[in-house]
Design a protein that fits this description.
Elements: H1 9-16, H2 21-26, H3 33-38, E1 47-49, H4 59-65, E2 75-77, H5 86-89, E3 101-103, H6 111-120, E4 126-129, H7 149-153, E5 161-165, H8 181-198, E6 204-208, H9 215-222, E7 230-232, H10 241-247, E8 256-258, H11 266-275, E9 281-283, H12 292-301, E10 307-309, H13 326-335, E11 341-343, H14 352-361, E12 367-369, H15 378-387, E13 393-395, H16 404-413, E14 419-421, H17 434-440, H18 448-462, H19 469-472, E15 493-495, H20 504-513, E16 519-521, H21 530-539, E17 545-547, H22 560-569, E18 575-577, H23 586-595, E19 601-607, H24 614-625, H25 638-643, E20 646-652, H26 656-666
Parallel strand pairs: 1-2, 2-3, 3-4, 4-5, 5-6, 6-7, 7-8, 8-9, 9-10, 10-11, 11-12, 12-13, 13-14, 14-15, 15-16, 16-17, 17-18, 18-19
Antiparallel strand pairs: 19-20
Length: 681
């Protein structure tokens, strides 16, 4: 058998691109000389993503590694890095000649810092400044009011993508106490109107929450946006139908439009669809004044539509508010056959008739979200199973009339299905793949032995309080051993939260057939016991996110035996929620922390009256992670934070490999570092 060390270097580099920082620098780099050399390849350093390390990334750590990647990095994501200052954003004077895109979302970059960034990197093609509070508010003790942000941005002549968000200010324009509304409007007009004119290559523009964006200014701006193909203006409540009707005649090339939570009406939708016939993506979530007539216009004029989002804000729509019905959905379905992505969550007026029409007319559908559509039944699932074989994502949480038969048929009939959300389906009592067994002529899996173990587990629970820690940490019986799969399914994400009838049988079925599972939510599934969780842990080795917490009304009966199995096999686990499991002990937590090297976040219930006191948990965390500042306890109630005695606690810390990496950065040991995006949950 050929060794993996003999793989061509081009293949190895493709594999390395999927590795995270700790895995590349502390794992792959140490395997052999060839891997060490390849880990410095420039192709691995084009994207520098700091978002998932924002909790402990400081100026010193960032600047210590930058010299080794500065010549290669093209895109930097600083999102959420609250501990970084302008010193880091300015790269400490280190030149990054290839830098073309920067994301400053939710950072503390200041206006003066941004001006220097723009001066230093005039070749930027993309910049995002959403949630940057210090751009709009002077620092304490600073009496200098920042200048106009748009004037600084106009210096980026190659800018193609711009994202801004503002509550009361427009493009960072700040007024002193003597400023008037007229001055403010004039500054807005000069800025927002001139920006796309000066940045002639601008193709994607996001202006979120700009309540001062009025019709006249929007229309003047639109005249200079003939090259814009992506326009997102959600929460711009200052716009009326006048702005929509007159402004969108200047967007002939628009492909992607987001007008969520605006006051657009049917007349505005008519103008938008008539002038933007090339639209491929449309988001109108929370637009409560659009009726079926507005959606009919979408069907009539936007035949190339591929993505559509029409979610309402409330679970129940009042009679005075508009919402899409079967008539509007059918009009879109019949005229937009290329639809691949549809979200119509919490649209209570949509019934089986609308979904059946969608399934029959749009057979290429890949993503469908109908969560909160209370009128849907299994008839919709039968239509989707029959017509939409390319379905990859399906969310139907709170569709309370859906039952096991329809759900199981959908899972079996759609072989590409990867993402399934079925929270709060009280009629879902069984997840079964028995039809697949028949097709493969395989006998059904017997759970008689599992049932016996459940009885044993139940007996253990009764006497749990009196057991010694050694007894609690006894090895699990071998009955949950590795199960050979009979059919491979592609599921990566499965949400069964608050499906109160889901039991061990269903979880074991999932473990047998969904080996690629990465995210599983079983919150409130109180019939699930240690045996099912142990089988799941052993068979789903790629599991990264696991929620086995109790609900607000009842706790789960899981014990340390479940934690032992997770600790033994959960080498990929990054997030674990075990709140409202009152039978676990500190010994189980200790075993978990010592054997799960990638665990980043742990949620649990602590109580001095139980087996998991807060102080002992913190002591255990510090023992295994060696750095107490990595722990960020927070509670759903004030009891735990105030007295640190009882409550639900969230502990966030880098994995054991990240702790080692932290020490490398602390000691400023050189070496190229690559940052790869992790899944967002």
């Amino acid at each position: 058998m050929a060794s993996y060390l003999c793989l061509p270097e081009s293949i190895l580099l493709m594999v390395f691109r999927y590795l995270r920082l700790d895995e590349l620098c502390l794992g792959a780099r140490k395997v052999c000389k060839t891997w060490h050399r390849l880990s410095y390849d420039s192709s691995l350093w084009k994207i520098l993503d700091l978002q998932h390390l924002c909790y402990f990334m400081t100026d010193e750590k960032y600047l210590s590694m930058l010299p080794f990647i500065a010549d290669h990095v093209e895109e930097i994501n600083f999102e959420g890095c609250k501990y970084l200052t302008d010193r880091a954003f300015l790269q400490g004077g280190i030149k990054c000649p290839r830098l073309r895109s920067v994301n400053f979302n939710f950072t503390n970059i200041t206006f003066s810092g941004l001006q220097l960034v723009i001066t230093q990197f005039k070749g930027l093609k993309g910049i995002s400044l959403i949630g940057c509070d210090k751009l709009q508010k002077p620092e304490p003790g600073c009496y200098e009011v920042p200048g106009n942000l748009h004037r600084a941005l106009q210096n980026l002549k190659q800018l193609q993508t711009l994202s801004l968000a503002s509550g009361d200010t427009m493009l960072g324009v700040l007024l002193d106490e003597e400023s008037t509304e007229e001055n403010f409007e004039q500054e807005e007009r000069n800025g927002i109107v001139q920006l796309p004119l000066q940045c002639s290559q601008l193709t994607a523009l996001t202006l979120s929450s700009h309540r001062r964006l009025k019709d006249r200014i929007f229309i003047e701006m639109a005249k200079n946006c003939v090259n814009v193909t992506k326009l997102h203006i959600p929460l711009c409540t200052g716009l009326t139908d006048e702005g929509f009707e007159q402004g969108f005649q200047y967007f002939p090339n628009l492909l992607d439009l987001d007008i969520c939570h605006t006051d657009v009406k049917d007349s505005g939708m008519k103008s938008i669809t008539e002038n933007c016939k090339e639209l491929q993506k449309l988001s109108v979530c929370g637009c409560k004044y659009i009726t079926d007539m507005g959606y009919v216009y979408v069907g009539l004029h936007c035949s190339k539509l591929e993505e559509l989002r029409i979610c309402t804000d409330r679970e129940y729509v009042w009679p005075t508010e508009a919402s899409i019905t079967d008539h509007g959905l059918t009009a879109i379905s019949q005229n937009c056959p290329d639809l691949k992505h549809v979200e119509i969550c919490r649209c209570s007026c949509v019934t089986d008739a609308g979904i059946i029409s969608l399934a029959e007319c749009c057979s290429g559908l890949e993503h469908l979200s109908v969560s909160g559509c209370l009128a849907l039944t299994d008839a919709s699932l039968h239509a989707l199973s029959r017509c939409c074989k390319n379905l990859k994502v399906f969310t139907a949480s709170e569709c309370v009339q859906l039952k096991s038969e329809g759900i199981n048929l959908l899972m079996i009939s759609c072989p590409l299905l990867k993402h399934l959300e079925l929270a709060t389906l009280h009629y879902l009592d069984t997840v079964s793949f028995k039809d697949v067994y028949a097709q493969n002529d395989v006998a059904a899996f017997s759970h008689s032995q599992a049932g016996c173990n459940d009885m044993i587990t139940s007996m253990d629970i009764v006497c749990e309080a009196s057991c010694s820690s050694e007894t609690q940490l006894a090895e699990m019986p071998s009955t949950h051993s590795h199960v050979e799969p009979r059919h491979a399914f592609q599921f990566r994400h499965l949400d069964l939260s608050l499906c109160s009838k889901i039991d061990n049988h269903s979880v074991i079925e999932i473990a047998k057939h969904c080996r690629e599972l990465q995210i599983l939510l079983l919150r409130g599934c109180h019939l699930v016991t240690d045996v099912a969780i142990a089988t799941l842990a052993e068979n789903c080795e790629k599991l990264q996110y696991l929620d086995i917490s109790g609900s607000s009304t009842s706790s789960l009966q899981l014990t340390d035996k479940a934690l032992l199995a997770i600790a033994e096999y959960g080498k990929s686990l990054e997030f674990l929620n075990i709140t409202k499991n009152l039978l676990i002990t500190e010994s189980g937590i200790s075993e978990l922390l010592s054997k799960c090297p990638r665990l980043f976040q742990l949620m649990l219930t602590v109580d001095y009256r139980l087996h998991v006191p807060f102080q002992q948990v913190m002591k255990t965390v510090i023992e295994y992670h060696g750095y107490s500042n990595y722990c960020h306890p927070s509670a759903e109630d004030g009891t735990c934070m105030g007295l640190r005695q009882a409550g639900n606690v969230t502990l966030q810390f880098p994995s054991l490999l990240k702790v080692k990496l932290h020490r490398v950065l602390e000691s400023k040991v050189g070496g190229n570092i690559s940052w790869c995006a992790q899944p967002k949950f």
